[in-house]
Write a structure and sequence with these properties.
Layout (H helix, E strand, L loop, with lengths): L2 E9 L3 H4 L8 E4 L6 E6 L2 H7 L7 H10 L11 H4 L4 E6 L10 H19 L2 E4 L23 E2 L2 H12 L3 H13 L2 H17 L9 H17 L2 H12 L2 H14 L8 E3 L2 E3 L8 H17 L16 H21 L2 E2 L3
Length: about 350
C-alpha cells in the first residue's frame, strides 16, 4: 500500500484560486524525519482508471464526465487525462518502513490535515470530494419565462437577497439568503397582529382609561402576546398575512407529482422527522416549522446536537429539494409587498 489519493475541489472563484499553482503544477509537503510526502496536483492517471471502471463507475461521476466533454470539443484526440485534467487530488506517499504504511485511516487523516494546512497558507478553500453530485448542488435556475414590463416596484433590499440566492455558489448561502426575505417581515407582521388585538380592546364599549381592571386586561393581552411570539410564530404570521394558501397548495401538488410526493412523505431532515400537511389548518404551521428547523440546522452547530448541518457531507442534497419551496414563498412576498407603478 503506502499510497493514498482522494479527489479534492476548489471552493469559490476568487483570484486566490487561480494563484494556487502560480509557480508549479503541484504543491508538495515533505516530512524530513520520516520521508512522508503529501502532494496536491491534478488527478493521477491510475486514479482516473479506477474511477472510470465501467463495472463500478458512479452514475453521477459519469454525468460529470459527460458535462465536461463540450469543453474539449474540436480536439483531434481526447484522452481520459484531458477529460479530468481540471480535477485535483491530494496524494500521500508513505515510507515502506513506517507503521502507517498500510493504515488507510491514518493516511486519510494526514491527507485531510494537509488540505487544511494548504488552505491556511494559500487562503484557498479546498475540500475532499465525498459525492460527485456535489457539483450539481445549486439553486435551480433552469426556469425560462417570458416576462412583461414591470407593473410594480419592489423592495430593493429583498431583491438584493434574492439575487444573492440565485447567484450563490453554495446552496447553504442561497437558502439563508431566501430566509432573510421572510425574516424581513417578522417585526411588521407580528406588530400588525398585536395592534389588531389592542384595537379590539380599545374600541370595546365598556373600555375606559379610568378603569384599572380594563387597563390590566390590556396589559395582559400585550404581555401574553410578547411571551408567545417567538420566531417560529412570527414566520407563520408572515404566511397568514401575505401568502396565498391555495396557490401554495397547488404549487406543492405540482412539485410532488414530479418528485415522488417529496413534501407529503415523512422524511428525516437533519435529525427530525418532517412532513408537509396541506390541510387548511396545517399547511402554514407544518411548512413554517420545516423551514425554521432547516434554518436552525444551517446556522447552529452545538456539539452533540443531531439537528445540524455538516458541510460537504452529502447533506447538500436535502437543500436541492427544500430550496425551491422557500424560493416560491420569497417570490410571492417580493411581489405582494411591491408598489404599483402609476404609468
Amino acid at each position: 500500500m503506502g499510497y493514498f489519493e482522494h479527489a479534492i475541489e476548489l471552493q469559490g472563484r476568487g483570484p486566490n484560486a487561480y494563484r494556487l499553482f502560480r509557480d508549479s503544477d503541484e504543491i508538495s509537503l515533505k516530512h524530513e524525519q520520516t520521508g512522508f510526502v503529501v502532494e496536491i496536483s491534478p488527478i493521477s492517471s491510475k486514479f482516473i482508471m479506477f474511477l472510470t471502471d465501467t463495472d463500478t463507475m458512479h452514475r453521477d461521476f459519469r454525468r460529470l464526465s459527460m458535462m465536461r466533454r463540450p469543453m474539449l470539443r474540436g480536439r483531434a484526440e481526447v484522452t481520459l487525462t484531458d477529460l479530468f485534467a481540471r480535477i485535483l487530488s491530494v496524494k500521500i506517499f508513505a515510507p515502506a518502513t513506517h507503521p502507517f504504511h498500510n493504515n488507510a485511516k491514518q493516511l486519510k487523516a494526514i491527507a485531510e490535515a494537509s488540505i487544511y494546512n494548504v488552505s491556511y497558507g494559500y487562503g484557498v478553500g479546498l475540500i475532499p470530494i465525498k459525492s460527485w453530485e456535489r457539483s450539481l448542488h445549486f439553486l435551480d435556475g433552469k426556469r425560462k419565462e417570458t416576462v412583461q414590463f414591470p407593473l410594480r416596484t419592489y423592495n430593493h433590499d429583498l431583491v438584493a437577497y434574492y439575487q444573492m440566492a440565485l447567484g450563490g455558489e453554495s446552496l447553504i448561502l442561497s437558502y439563508l439568503a431566501l430566509y432573510k426575505i421572510l425574516e424581513y417581515f417578522f417585526t411588521a407582521a407580528s406588530e400588525h397582529l398585536l395592534h389588531e388585538k389592542i384595537v379590539d380592546q380599545l374600541v370595546a364599549p365598556d373600555f375606559s382609561h379610568t378603569k384599572v381592571g380594563k387597563l390590566r386586561e390590556l396589559a395582559k393581552v400585550i404581555r401574553k402576546f410578547d411571551q408567545r411570539m417567538d420566531e417560529r410564530r412570527m414566520l407563520q404570521t408572515v404566511f397568514d398575512q401575505h401568502i396565498d394558501k391555495e396557490a401554495l397548495r397547488l404549487w406543492i401538488d405540482e412539485f410532488d407529482k414530479e418528485n415522488s410526493d417529496y413534501f407529503r412523505t415523512e422524511r428525516d431532515l437533519f435529525g427530525e422527522p418532517s412532513k408537509v400537511d396541506t390541510s387548511e389548518n396545517q399547511i402554514f404551521p407544518t411548512i413554517g416549522a420545516r423551514i425554521y428547523h432547516i434554518r436552525n440546522a444551517l446556522v447552529h452547530n452545538k456539539e452533540g446536537e443531531v439537528s445540524r448541518f455538516i458541510p460537504f457531507s452529502g447533506q447538500e442534497k436535502i437543500l436541492v429539494n427544500e430550496a425551491p419551496l422557500l424560493r416560491r414563498i420569497s417570490e410571492e412576498l417580493i411581489l405582494k409587498t411591491g408598489k404599483d407603478i402609476q404609468l
